[in-house]
Every structure is written in C-alpha cells, then in structure tokens.
Amino acid sequence: MAMLEVKNLNAGYGKLKVLFDVNFRAKEHEITVLVGPNGAGKTTLLNSIAGLATIFDGQITFNGKDITGMPPHKIAKEGISYLLQMGNIVSGLTVRENLVIAGYLLPKDEVDDRIEEILNIFPRLKEFMHRKAGTLSGGERRMLAIGMALMRRPKILLLDEMTTDLAPILVKMVLEKVVELRDQYKQTIVLVEQNAKRALEIGDYAYLLVSGTMRYEGSPEELLHHPQFSKLYLGIKE
Ligand SMILES: Nc1ncnc2c1ncn2[C@@H]1O[C@H](COP(=O)(O)OP(=O)(O)OP(=O)(O)O)[C@@H](O)[C@H]1O
Ligand SMILES: [Mg+2]
Fold first, then answer.
1. Closest-lying ligand to the alpha carbon of 160?
2. Where are the domains of the chain?
3. Nearest Cα to Cα of residue 61 among 81, 41, 75
4. Is 86 close to ligand 1, i.e. is its CB under 6 Å away?
5. What residues are neighbours of ligand 2 (ion), with CB under 5 Å?
6. What is the DSSP string of 34-57?
7. How far is the CA of 11 from the centre of ligand 2 (A)?
8. Domain 1-79+159-231 has what CATH class?
9. Splitting the chain (238 residues) into consecutive groups of 10 residues, what average pLDDT does each group show?
C-alpha cells in the first residue's frame, strides 16, 4: 500500500488552476522522484500535500487518512515534513539554534537526542554547531536544511530542489545523503528535482509532470532511457 496517495487532484492558487487530474503515490522506504520542466507544477503538488495550495477537487490520503484541505500544522503533525524550495534556514542564528527551532514541537529532552542523531547522519555539521547558518556553504546549508526537516522524525520527507545551484560534486554528495537516508534510516522520501538525470538514477519510482499534467509514471530507468525522453520532458507531443 502507498503511504501517500494523491487522487485526481486539481489544485492551484486562488482561482488559478495549476494541476489537472494529477495522480501520485509514494511507497514506504522508497525514493519517489518527481521531475518536470520549470513551471510544470512540481512545487504546487508538494504545496497541495502540505496544505499550502488551493485544492479544487480530488483527494490526498496519508497512511489511509484523508488529509485533503487540512491546515499545514496539522499535516506536519501527521508526520509529513516539507523542505521548501527556498529553504527554511534562519541565517542569523547558529546551526544549533536552527535545529532547536525545527524541533519546537518536541519535548525538551528529546531535542538533544534528535540533534545527536542528526549529527550522526551529518557529522560535518558538528564543526559548525555554533556558527551562524548564514556563513555555511551551499552544500552545508542543504545538509542543515535536511537535518532540520528530520528533527521531528517525519514519516515522509518532501524535498524540493535540493541540488539547484550546487557544484556537481555537491549535487553528488547531497543525493548520496538522500540514498543513505533511505537505505540506513528507512526514510520515505519524495524527491522533486530539475536535475532529472541524477534524481532518476537514485529513485525507486518516477513521475514526470509537464504543464500540470502527469505524462509518465513508472520505472526511473525506463524514463531515463526512454527514446522520447527529451520530447516528453519538454512536453512535445508526437
Ligand atoms: N503562490 C503562487 N501564486 C500564484 N501562482 C503561483 C504560485 N506559485 C506558483 N505559481 C504558478 O504555478 C505554476 C506552477 O509553478 P510551480 O512552482 O509549481 O512549478 P515547478 O514545477 O515547481 O517549477 P520550478 O521547476 O521552476 O520550481 C507556475 O505557472 C507559477 O507561476
Ligand atoms: Mg518548484
């Protein structure tokens, strides 16, 4: 059974329709990859799941529970952690303070345990604990952002464009961490990426969204080696 299921979703902002009859599922312990060109509606799909978009029609269920139209904080409490495309780091606070804020709903003694666990996943953050987050490099910021999303031990992690603007070596490092989260920590992940090729290489299942419509779902391998991949990706119909 899918952990997250989106059925016939029509959603957007205010009166604007962005998604048309979208179906999407994410299974437990898998990386589900969502790719598509700029403006396709990828972020809007994550926003819909997280309670941040206007839903016109359709249904979103999480672990069998209907979460359609629930307010964002309730959805977060259900165990859905959403890492926004623009990041949620506060530059003027230290790395440690950022992690503490991300765990604000947790009992106090649990916060330290969680921070300890996150430092095991991202050992490099140890050196930066008392530095202002604004002084971190691009790659280090992404690590901190993922760490923050993990503070509340989410059942599912929604990652939006984690690798944009990173040098190739850092893209590789961030995606390796995503794989590690799945393999070692059994984390369920939805990965939205414009870096389609690399994302498809690590995904278990893939979706391609073009102009608000799902154009492909299935094996990431197959999509990657699809003879019409570029055409599909750009939304050119045969
Ligand atoms: N808050 C908003 N209010 C109104 N329209 C919006 C809002 N956010 C996005 N849109 C519009 O919705 C459409 C889909 O945008 P979305 O951000 O979901 O695309 P995307 O696939 O994530 O693109 P990118 O790869 O550039 O991040 C775009 O036409 C965009 O202008
Ligand atoms: Mg986006």
1. 2
2. 1-79+159-231, 85-153
3. 75
4. no
5. 42-43, 85
6. EE--TTSSHHHHHHHHHT-SEEEE
7. 15
8. alpha beta
9. 95 97 98 94 97 98 97 94 83 94 87 94 93 91 92 94 87 92 96 89 96 95 84 63
